[in-house]
Amino acid sequence: MAGLSFDNYQRNAFLASKTHSNLPKATSTGTTIVGVKFHNGVVIAADTRSTQGPIVADKNCAKLHRISPRIWCAGAGTAADTEAVTQLIGSNVELHSLYAKRQPRVVTALQMLKQHLFKYQGHIGAYLIVAGTDPTGAHLFSVQAHGSTDVGFYLSLGSGSLAAMAVLESNWKEDLSKEEAIKLASDAIQAGIWNDLGSGSNVDLCVMETGKDAEYLRNYITPNVREAKQKSYKFERGTTAVLKEKIIDICEVEEEQVLVV
Amino acid sequence: MNGIQVDINHLKKGEVSLGTSIMAVTFDGGVILGADSRTTTGAYIANRVTDKLTRIDDKIWCCRSGSAADTQAVADIVQYHLELYTSQYGTPSIETAAAVFKTLTYENKDALSAGIIVAGYDDKKKKGEVYSIPLGGSVHKQKYAIAGSGSAFIYGYCDKNYRENMNKEETVEFVKHSLSQAIKWDGSSGGVIRLVILTESGVERLIFYPDEYENL
Amino acid sequence: MTSVGTGYDLSNSVFSPDGRNFQVEYAAKAVENGATSVGLLCEDGVVLAVEKLVASKLLVKASPQNKGSGANTKIQTVGRHIGCACSGLVPDGRHLVNRAREESQQFKQLYKRDIPPVALADRMGQYVQAHTLYNSVRPFGVAAIFGGVDPETAEPHLYMLEPSGVYWGYRGAATGKGRQSAKAELEKLISSRDDNSPITTLEAVKELARIIYIAHEDNKEKEFEVEISWCSREHTQGKHTLVQGTMLEEALEYAKSKTSNAQDDSDDSDADSDDAMQD
Q1: In this complex, is the C-beta atom of B9 within 8 Å of any C-beta atom belonging to chain C?
Q2: Is the dihedral angle over the CA atoms B154, B156, B159, B162 positive or is it negative?
Q3: Is the pTM of this model over 0.90?
Q4: Closest by CA position to A58, among listed A92, A23, A29, A38
Q5: How confident is the model over C186-244, as pLDDT tens digits?
Q6: Where is the composition biased (Acidic residues) (chain C) (predicted)?
Q7: pLDDT band at B157 (very low <50, low <70, confident <90, very high)
């Protein structure tokens, strides 16, 4: 019979549901990321929790990625994908700017990202907030895994995006100053850290002002510093008693002196 | 789903969709495109101020409905085609733009969910034109077109209230009233109403906020 | 031909030390020996005409009376609104037009409008030029005259494409064995008119018939027929059509009458000045 055979479809579905050995799942980072524009720049921020299912895999991971010196990116979704896609496009953006002899533009990075992600039809699980400054000004965009993009004055993505958006929607106003934007972005991330199970630990931040170098502020806020242990759990030397000592010669050692003339 | 008949038009998991109300209407001196501004992922509004009216050429624009990723990609490719066309053969007609849209959506119908309205002002013919290109990739030249999930609620309204040779102001009112109703009854439409007006004199953009259109 | 035997003429992809591609020049030679083709750009359209040398008495004749005899037509139709007359190797011309038809259909499929003659000339130019680059192919042994009316603008266009891939827009174009005298006649015809009395397709049909007769003078021993086609805004609605019946009959009658008593004053048109390469 010509064409594709779906004979085993139901059998496979049945086996998948009955088998105890589960198929491997990609790690997905529950995340809160935001971006906020201000009068002459843009700021992006992220939490630093990385998860594998119910386990916190990393308490202080970095979710802010550099595409070019003045274009930065906050990633949610599959950790490996956000890192890989961001490095790939970063590399291509650098080649492109070398070739064109021009400062890289945010729209260029965005277009490269969306075309790459669209090509993979959502199988690359990268949800990104792309921001930066270039000769045309400051920009803030988001890209979804399937390749769609959005523009905005303030954006949030990831499992904590609802908590973050609640903060953004209630506190955002037009023409924010740099300091106000930083405050708003970090407040929004903290809403994710405290209210979303998938997000936690610290706030990373990156400020991009037009005509200036980007400022990457790793662990801008650290509200979850582990409290010092009240006791030391180190064992004193000699805690373990020596019951017996025995030295065994494994081989014969012959000594010989060689004279060099 | 029984494994053989697969619904190709359902959105992939986590995909952003434009559950939408869009329309384009020809009038005496041009054409008006209108759209709501809501994009959703499931029950969450991913963007409440989306711009679904996209430029293809100076005076050829389109309204996008369906998957945001698919329609943006298609619109980008058509824009590229027409830019190349312009450099070789001069300004394209609206029909040519619609034909390129059709080729892409028809030949990739298995992979795309894109319902598009192409509209433009033809400076040679001195009139506006509207082409509707629904899911399968067919092309329909119309006096006016409505599409998206919200359009279901306004077929009757539009049929009763559309008149040929309206002036610009009448058409703006017609589009505003129609989309207002579509947004009112469709859960996946909302936000602001965006309009693009294409005439001899150029491109004009309008925006209407909920407190303005909700109590017409 | 000093180049023969040097090895530089054996392949397409090899230049001679003085920067010539001999294969392309040989292809041009094939055209120079081919039957004459002419085209004329008119006020309201274009007219094409070819000299058809009768290779055998057994071939079906194309006489004005014998309308059913489309068996051996030489002018070809590319699309609704563009025609093509070729000189040189006939099968190459057939293949070229086949490609032109594909190009015109592909254009229409994508853009939902007829291909403008300029765009067709350009695409065919690229195709022919590509045949001067590769080892595995030979250049086209034809020069093709494309004539048509752009349905979008209603403007008439005339282009001639050569084996090198070069193409130019012409007011009057001629190629093939009788091109020298044909060109001289075209020049006379065009310069005799000014902007106030531009030539019409109706007149051009007769004039081109006459020019084919004149171009055939040097080849008198061979029997020939004349084939004419036109794209006229008003007479054929821009459609490329063969001239047949009484209209063709009248044109041929006119040509014969003009050539029998014009033979003496056509002697001044034999200067072979623009033909640089001689063997």
Answers
A1: no
A2: negative
A3: no
A4: A29
A5: 999 999 988 778 899 999 999 999 999 999 998 888 899 999 999 999 999 999 999 99
A6: 264-279
A7: very high
Residue C66 scores a pLDDT above 70: no
Q: Smallest Cα–Cα separation from C118: which of C80, C75, C77, C157?
A: C157
DSSP class of residue B153? Answer: G
Number of domains in chain C: 1
The Cα of C124 is separated from the nearest Cα of chain B by a number of Å equal to 15
Task: Clarify whether A133 is annotated catalytic.
Answer: no
Angle between helix A178-195 and helix A161-171 axes, rounded to 10 deg: 140
CA distance C111 to C165: 25
User: Splitting chain A (261 residues) into consecutive groups of 10 residues, what average pLDDT does each group show?
Assistant: 79 81 62 97 97 91 97 96 97 97 97 98 96 98 97 97 98 97 98 97 98 97 94 90 91 86 75
Is residue A116 less than 8 Å (CB to CB) from chain B?
A: no
Does residue C235 form part of some domain?
yes
Bridge partners of residue C148, in order along the sequence: C82, C157
| B16 with A10: Cβ contact below 8 A | no
Starting at the earlier edge strand, list the strands of the sheet with C82-88: C76-79, C82-88, C142-149, C156-161, C167-169
| Domain presence at residue C45 | yes
Residue C79 domain boundaries: 22-261
Beta carbons within 10 angstroms of residue B135's beta carbon: 17
Structural domain contains residue C156:
yes
Query: Rounded distance, CA B92 to CA B84, Å?
Result: 10
Answer whether B touches A (≥3 Cβ pairs < 8 Å). Answer: yes
Matching residue, tokens 């070729």: C86
By C-alpha distance, which of A50, A52, A53 is closest to A76? A50
Domain-located, residue C214: yes
Whether residue C265 is predicted with pLDDT greater than 70 in this model: the reply is no
SS3 for B21? coil
Please state, in angstroms and rounded to a whole number, the distance separating the CA atoms of residues C50 and C85: 7
Written as six digits, the tokens of B145 are: 């077109």
CB A67 within 8 A of CB A130: yes
- Band (pLDDT 50/70/90 cuts) for residue C69 is low
**Quick one: C9 exposed, middle or buried, by C-beta within 10 A (0-12, 13-18, 19+)?**
middle
Among residues B134, B95, B119, the alpha carbon closest in space to that of B34 is found at B119
Query: Subunits with at least 3 CB pairs below 8 A relative to chain C?
Result: B
CA distance C108 to chain B (A): 9
| Chain A residues lying within 8 Å of B73, measured CB to CB | 114-115, 118, 147
Residue B154 per-residue DSSP state: G
| Arch. (CATH architecture) of B22-212 | 4-Layer Sandwich (3.60)
**Token output for A201:** 């630990």
Domain boundaries defined on chain B: 22-212
Alpha helices by DSSP H, C113-200: 117-130, 179-191
Domains and CATH numbers, chain A: 27-221 (3.60.20.10)
Chain B contact set for C111 (CB, 8 A): 85, 92, 96, 99-100
> By three-state DSSP, how is residue A259 classified?
coil
Q: And the tokens for A172?
A: 């955002």
- Which of C237, C238, C13, C33 has its CA nearest to residue C116? C238
User: What are residue C234's phi and psi, to 5 degrees?
Assistant: -90, -35
**Alpha-carbon gap: B52 to the closest alpha carbon of chain C (Å):** 24
Q: B139: burial class by Cβ within 10 Å (0-12, 13-18, 19+)? A: middle
Q: How many Cβ atoms from other residues are within 10 Å of residue A137's Cβ?
A: 13
Distance CA(A58)–CA(A102), nearest Å, equals: 38
CATH number at residue C28: 3.60.20.10
Position C196, amino acid: N
Sign of CA dihedral C146, C149, C150, C151: negative
